[in-house]
Amino acid sequence: MAKIQTKKNSSKKEIIIEKAARLFREKGFGAASMRDIAETVGVEAASLYNHIQSKSEILQAICFKVANEFISHLEEVERSGDSLLKKMETIIRFHIRMMLEQYEYVYISDHEWRHLAEPYLSNFLNQRRSYRKRLGDLVEEGIAKNEMKNIEPYVAVLTILSAISGIESWQRSRKSTSAETLEANMVKYLIEGLKK
Amino acid sequence: MAKIQTKKNSSKKEIIIEKAARLFREKGFGAASMRDIAETVGVEAASLYNHIQSKSEILQAICFKVANEFISHLEEVERSGDSLLKKMETIIRFHIRMMLEQYEYVYISDHEWRHLAEPYLSNFLNQRRSYRKRLGDLVEEGIAKNEMKNIEPYVAVLTILSAISGIESWQRSRKSTSAETLEANMVKYLIEGLKK
DNA sequence: AAACAAAACTAACGAGTGTTAGGTAGGCTA
DNA sequence: TAGCCTACCTAACACTCGTTAGTTTTGTTT
Questions:
Q1: In the list A15, A95, B32, B135, which could disulfide-bond B157, CB 3.0-4.6 Å?
Q2: What would the CATH number be for the domain defined by A7-52?
Q3: Closest by alpha carbon to B110, among B4, B6, B28?
Q4: Which helix (H) or strand (E) holds B62?
Q5: How far is CA A12 from CA A15, A56, B115, B128, in A?
Q6: In this predicted structure, what is the pLDDT of residue B100?
Q7: How many angstroms is C1' of C26 away from CA of A1?
């Protein structure tokens, strides 16, 4: 019998994913059980299966939602007529804001993707590799056009993306430094370090 | 009955920790079972308990070994008479080399510490916070002495440490870029971005 | 050869895992 | 009102988990 996707169904599914995301981030994918998720949703574990097909499906939904957002933003930036340094800054700011506004989802996509089942795992890694390659091409062009320092593009991209992903550890203690200060200073460091 | 620590005993314990580290890194602490570890050691799971006290103990040993190495290196650098920029460069290079040479251990200390049990968890986080604070003080002094750009010290430290920890994702595909290129270019990016 | 301790083994424990089967209450439509 | 579908429930299955108990093998020392 085919599942009919009603409004109620899809919104409950979204609630489940949202609650699960919180738990996956706090305890890790493996340590967060279906019974844990069910409890925060306010339902028995078995009832979750009226809305989702498996625990894996939740992880897949989260990882690919995030990946798609980054890819489509990149395509938008690539089409723009900005300078290469400006393009990189736009991308860096987008990453930082995603990390601030969609913390749970981005964190999981960064740290729990290894628990994806095949073929989603390979798929995810291919998208990731391709995304980084395209960022590297932007840096390479920026160097060629004398906008940027001669830093090996792969290493520059790795440095930038890793630095941003470390905002995760700021999220746990948001007290002393504001989000604005964080964004402004990290952009300053990463962009001025890249600028010729 | 007190356990007697013979030479054989301690070396077998080290083997167990080494093999476990590999598995913790590959599958995560939660997903790597004692039976997995036992298999790679070439023994039954129950036999592991002749050498270690618990699965947690393995994680503790790894995390604190790494933490202690970083702390004692920092103390050495603090005592040196180098400029502040040079001090930071020394620390950055040390972090990168640790990431290259003790990949498994450093990775686990970076990513699996959340599975530590109390009171080790709090202890670990305190050491981490104190370490970052001391790095921040170096940056703050570097700014005051006009050696460095005025980047919020906490953000600068976060950026540096996160960037380096991202070398993890390079380790998985070591083909195109050599370790030397990686170190040289990352140091260049992080130091020149910091230099006034 | 006898004695001893270290380190391996088998077997099992209690708890927790994702998931399925089968049943029931409540609301919408014919 | 009768039928139907959705979303919940309880109960259970077939594992796997870390760990312990009790026993046997192995290797060294007297």
A1: B135
A2: 1.10.10.60
A3: B28
A4: helix B55-79
A5: 5, 17, 31, 40
A6: 94
A7: 22
